[in-house]
Amino acid sequence: KFKTSNWIIVFIVILLIALITLFRVPILEKIGSNLVYRSDLVPSDAIVVLAGSHSGNRIKEAVRIFKKGMGKVIIFSGYTLYPGMDSHVGMKQYAIRLGVPEDKIIAEKANGETSTRGEAYVNLKQLEHLKAESFILVTSSFHTRRSHWVYKREIKKLGMEIILRVQPAPDPRAPIDSWWKIRSGKIQILLEYIKTFYYFFAY
């Protein structure tokens, strides 16, 4: 005989399934949007573009806001992709192709740790050399919150007085409002959460 308690369990399970089905999309959207950090755009001394995306989305967004007068120069740092081929060189060439004057671009190889943290150190030292008082950090939307946290932390460690602003660049690999619909989106969002937790506990 089916006990009343069993009926209650069945009812709760059905209710949970119904709620998950009903609110599935808003929950998934929240998972994606929680990774995004955005500042109000204000003209700054420099625009710093993070390496790591090969779709050109970060460079396109940087060039777009550069043409709006949001930065005096664009800074790239990169790593060796293949022997004799460095990412910052390709980033610079693409920015020139999009209409940025060569003398408004600073591109250098990031020696040391190949990570957001390692890249932050190189970029911040470059900004310090330029005596910049403010900069806009451009990276893929899903990468902005962790990048903001990393840069704020490194700025404090270096004892710098500089204003950090963040501008998300829509990334076709992981559209924030529909990342769960494509394989690359699922991978990027999962990896970003793993890296976020790792950074939180490791640093």
Write the layout of secondary structure elements.
Elements: H1 4-33, E1 44-49, H2 57-67, E2 71-78, E3 80-82, E4 85-86, H3 87-97, E5 105-109, H4 116-129, E6 134-140, H5 144-158, E7 163-169, H6 183-202
Parallel strand pairs: 1-2, 1-6, 2-5, 6-7
Antiparallel strand pairs: 3-4
Helix share bin: 40-55%
Number of DSSP E strands: 7
Tell me the structural class.
alpha/beta
Describe the global form: elongated
> What's the average pLDDT?
88
Describe this structure in words.
The protein is an alpha/beta fold and 203 residues long. The chain has helices at residues 4-33, 57-67, 87-97, 116-129, 144-158, 183-202, and strands at 44-49, 71-78, 80-82, 85-86, 105-109, 134-140, 163-169. The strands form two sheets. A five-stranded parallel beta sheet has the order 5-2-1-6-7, sandwiched between helices. Strand 6, helix 5 and strand 7 (163-169) form a beta-alpha-beta unit.
Short description:
The protein is of the alpha/beta class. The chain is built from 6 helices and 7 strands; from the N terminus they run αβαβββαβαβαβα.
Task: Provide the descriptors you would attach to this structure in a database record.
five-stranded parallel beta sheet; single chain; 203 residues; 7 strands; two-stranded antiparallel ribbon
